[in-house]
Prior knowledge:
Elements: H1 4-14, E1 19-25, E2 33-38, H2 39-53, E3 62-66, H3 71-82, E4 86-90, H4 97-111, E5 115-118, H5 121-128, H6 132-135, E6 138-139, E7 161-167, E8 175-180, H7 181-195, E9 202-205, H8 212-224, E10 228-231, H9 234-239, H10 242-251, E11 255-258, H11 260-269, E12 285-288, H12 295-305, E13 315-317, E14 319-320, E15 327-330, E16 339-342, H13 344-348, E17 359-362, E18 366-367, E19 371-376, E20 390-396, E21 402-403, E22 412-422, E23 425-431, E24 436-438, E25 441-443, H14 445-453, E26 459-469, E27 472-479, H15 485-503, E28 509-513, H16 528-537, E29 542-547, H17 557-572, H18 592-606, H19 612-617, H20 621-630
Parallel strand pairs: 1-10, 3-4, 3-5, 5-6, 9-10, 9-11, 11-12, 12-13, 27-28
Antiparallel strand pairs: 1-2, 7-8, 8-21, 14-15, 15-18, 16-17, 19-20, 20-22, 22-23, 24-25, 26-27, 28-29
Helix pairs in contact: 1-2, 2-3, 4-5, 7-8, 11-12, 14-15, 15-17, 15-18, 17-18, 17-20
Amino acid sequence: MQLIEDALAHQARLRPDRPAVTHLDFEAGHIPRHLEVTFGELHARAAAFAARLSAVVAPGQHVMLLHNSGVDFVVEFFGCLMAGAVPVPAPEPQIPYHRAAERLTRIVEDAGITAATAARQVAVADVVALSPRLSEVTWLGDAVPGETGPRRERRALRDDVAYLQYTSGSTGSPRGIEITHGNVLDEVDYFGAALGLDSESVLVNWAPVFHDLGLVLGVLVPLLRGGRIVTLSPQAFVRDPERWLRAISDFGGTHAAAPDFAYDLCLRRIPENRRAGLRLDTWRVAINGAEPVRAETVDRFTESFAPYGFRPDAMRPSYGLAECTLAVTTPPLHEMPGRVVADRDALAEGVVKPSPTGRTLVSCGRPIPGINVSIVSPDTREQLPEDAVGEIRVTGWGVARGFHGDPARMTELNTGDLGFFHEGELYVTGRLKDVIIVRGQNYHPVDLEQVAERADPQIRPGCLAAFQDGDVVGMVCEVRGNQTEAELAEIATTIQREISETFQLKLDVIALVQPGSVPKTSSGKVRRNECGRRLAAGELRVRHRVERTAVSARVSAAAAKPMLRFLLGRVVGIPVTQLDDHVPFADYGLDSKGAHELAGELERLLGTAVPSSMVFDYPTISDLAKALESE
Length: 631
């Protein structure tokens, strides 16, 4: 077959009355409304949409589809292909609308969008009002019902662009990746076979369809292999992760895929008393990808849900990226992925050295047939041997044609990801451009984030960003709860202490922010550089912030006073509310031992030497705060 729509037509002829898409709509409450189409109905509705679309767009033009999930998206996506148009999936507008307007405007301008559809017309109207460029787009919700255009001439080249996959990326503006019909059909053949997907498979998906994981694995691969997909929106999953597992249980789901944070969310948000009745024995393949895979998550999820039928060999950490359509590596069926416990210091130097107390890394499997993966030196571009860390390079059928607007064709993909091969399996260690370098020592942000995450249970897992801006190394953490200033100061102190003790590294700035503040890509990857930029620009909702410069621990007196109250209160055992900024420390019973302890706490928090003599020379909170400000 030459075209994606040919593959759908083939499935519609084979099994016209078999369910193709079942969407679980939770908008009305906990009991979902089922919206379902068969393969025959899907093909017919897509053809009708194509006829309508042909009245307003010409073959080859780009049509933006603003959906997170649902039957309508699937119909419109295939309908665009039937009309010869190029679908461009994009996220439904979310508050704050000005950010949504900025992103969508960039996509419209880059792709030359002429028409668009949307799942939420009211939200779209609010966003369009913020951008004159968006108002120039033909919104098909306002088109005349029933109006049709002439059928387009059939294209027959596998190398034609099927759709544009826009990535939010870790930095910079979104770029449109040109995915061809051949890319997708090969993905259906090779990745589908590697996962054991067939006409009896049921894939349950909540990942957004504007992301490669949600589109390619959540929609295209299972449908074009004759399988059924059961979908729910990302919002429905995040509000109640039990819905995902219940759908797998109720529909006999055989396949599902999600980033690591989703499995962790299930562990945290589905207590044992809500797991009764789950039947996960049909779940054969649980893809864990799109962000770093944590051994702790894999182990805890497997152990916690084993009593409900989840099998250890179902969890399959995998590696992929949109520039390669989706999949690059995955473990072979029924093969447990390997593990390596590597010395952190050696790993930072690019060498894999076993260590019982090192960083535990989980294998992402082996290259899919037809995909070639190598590890190369970022400097010389020479291929590296096993157990050497370098940049991951990919060649083969999955590599996209290129980026929209860039005439250069991609024949090989230098991913920007760091990793190594061990016994033929790929291990991903981090991002090349995210590496933090201090005094010639390399630190992977994910390592720092995982240590900081354990500092306090109120720190949201997966919602931290370690970044470097020039000489400044910072950490931003989302924190739940309604802590006092003193309690937030204690969390920041613990983060600094844990990072210092684990890595011998001092953070220049620690910012504790409101949940939802840390920027992420559409797939949930933390945008570390963007997070640092927003922090510097004052665009994050900061609850507590501690800073030190590269040469001193100078802090404002206003910022130092609550910190000193908290530390003094902890040392002398007196509630913060009973401390006065102008009462001598000795009046609170602070002796020489306490002075050393207070100075030590200040050192750990500020990341610089604080002699005990300062506590004696400046014997009140007010005096010491002013001294710290002037140091």
